[in-house]
Amino acid sequence: MLGFKLKDIILYAGVVAAVPWNNDQNEQKPLNLPLSGKQNPSNRGHSRQPNIVFILTDDQDIEMRSLDYLPFVQKHLLNKGTLFRNHFVTTALCCPSRVSLWTGRHSHNTNVTDVNPPYGGYPKFVSQGFNENFLPVWLQQAGYNTYYTGKLFNAHTTQNYNNPHVKGFTASDFLLDPWTYNYLNPAYQRNHEPPILYKGQHTIDILIDKANSLLDDAIASEKPFFLGIAPVAPHSNVEGDISDISDLYKIKFSEPIPLKRHAHLFPDAKVPRTPHFNPDKPSGVNWIAERPQLNKTLVDHNDYYYRQRLRALQGVDELVDGIFKRLEENGQLDNTYIFYTSDNGFHVSQHRLNPGKECGFEDDIRVPFIVRGPGIAEGAISKAVTTHIDVAPTIFELAGIPLREDFDGLAIPLEKSQQKTKRHEHVNVEYWGFAVEEGSFGGTLFWNNTYKSLRIIGENYNLYYSVWCNNEHQLYDLTNDPYQLRNIYPGYEYHDKSITILGAPLAKVVDRLDSLLLVLKSCKGTVCVKPWEKLHPDGDVESLPDALLADFDIFYEQQESVSYSRCEAGYILDAEGPQDALSYKRHGVHWSNWV
């Protein structure tokens, strides 16, 4: 470490605790110094391959308008890049979502479905073989230098960080459990060095210094580079061992903690009072349908929690501004693609829910996704349906790397000239295990939160369909019910036999949606991009309207339905119900089993 003296270096639960010493006042001060490398203000010219900076926040919403409170994100990204408004995560939980992001595979193909072992976390990522087979490794093989700082995965701890070390990075400085979410006592671990506990220092200020230092090193290397920056904001502050979330008495959730310079901001901000804010009637199914209406104490707390999220994001906003200034000063901005997104969305008071994620509602699965770079339209909004599964293929395309056959996604059309490229209409959403309430009034676990969902968007249709592990169903028509308050699936309160979608009776539409979900819930590779081709190998069906032709009615009525035999906390195949879909044939055999 440079630029300060250490009063003490103590080994604390596997962490070297760095305590900066101020000779004048004998007190701790925030670290605000680069770790290594020197800023190079000269223009070193452009790399043949573009640079990539990827900023990944934690639990950031888009539906509650958090982007409205980030002036530097607006200035550098929204005004100078493209916002992909229909961008979704496929698992609304950080570790599974991040593994999917960096591998280009759905969670049912990574089998990393939770934040901790046995079903998830860094140990599961390693045991599945991905430490040798994910994005930074592939980029290094293609000639990139790769850098990363901040949160990588859950259950990446001060005890297992070197068993093994994360591969694929030229240099790294990771946040580690059990201090990942402790805003004022974070633990970072640089390269292969021991972890350091920064007692009393704010995680975002530390991250800003580390990100700037890594960027300086990346620019000085004169090679194309990838830099991942993953601040923990606006996640809840958490004290205790998050690796054992089953015992919540040992874990203290509280509101995000902003930097002191931002603690006074937005005193009047409240959770947007949209129709699904603490509604008079319960919505959803399973445990969500049983949630009571929030009382005034909880509503007031949730408004405070919302303000703290916005305040905590101001440090991220400053980070973004600093990164752009460094890129511009070093002549690298015109040859760099900058991505800004989150690992999942978030809800606060919607559907009567206290702060949290893990649900299939829009609030949790729809996230900010903004890209700026060469050829990308400025100040644009794209309506293309995109997901985190598409990110790795997109970066491959930018870097000029041939796409892998095991990618479950499709490169995103970034440039203005690509915006009219025809894409699929669907998003496959999946989840296993529990949901948890966060914040000072949180701590409740809701089990049996396992479900499969289909999000499908096209001209004149906008639908969400899900099947839960207790075999309850949801169907929302977001064209007429954008806040997902009226479950129109047959047998539920808002079902009406007179309802039609695309001119078809509801039962007919449900048959098609369920069959499409049956393919997607176990798809691999190109099947995940073109699932209709598995149902209709002749290639005459490419969308929901095509599938609604009367010729196919008997075929879809014969199809097995998506169902579960039981609720499980992870991806256990014999609990997952039918796996094979029938395929329609116009000639010869009318339909056949697809394996």
Automatic annotation (TrEMBL):
MF GO annotations: arylsulfatase activity; glycosaminoglycan binding; N-acetylglucosamine-6-sulfatase activity
SUPFAM superfamilies per the record? Alkaline phosphatase-like (SSF53649)
Reaction(s) catalysed by this chain, per the record, are: an aryl sulfate + H2O = a phenol + sulfate + H(+)
InterPro entries assigned:
Alkaline_phosphatase_core_sf (IPR017850), Arylsulfatase (IPR012083), Sulfatase_CS (IPR024607), Sulfatase_N (IPR000917)
| N-terminal signal peptide | 1-18
Please provide the Gene Ontology terms (biological process) for this protein.
phenol-containing compound metabolic process
Keywords on this record? Glycoprotein, Hydrolase, Signal
Q: What is the enzyme's class at the highest EC level?
A: hydrolase
Spell out the post-translational modification annotation for this entry.
Answer: The conversion to 3-oxoalanine (also known as C-formylglycine, FGly), of a serine or cysteine residue in prokaryotes and of a cysteine residue in eukaryotes, is critical for catalytic activity.
Give its E.C. classification number: 3.1.6.1
Per the record, residues carrying 3-oxoalanine (Cys) are C94
Renumbered to this chain, the Polar residues biased-composition regions fall at: 37-49
Chain spans, region Disordered: 27-49
Q: Where is the Sulfatase N-terminal domain?
A: 50-401
One of its Pfam families is Sulfatase
Q: Which family does it belong to?
A: Belongs to the sulfatase family.
Question: What PANTHER family does this protein's entry cite?
Answer: N-ACETYLGLUCOSAMINE-6-SULFATASE FAMILY MEMBER, SD21168P
Protein name according to UniProt: Arylsulfatase
Annotated source species: Orbilia ellipsospora
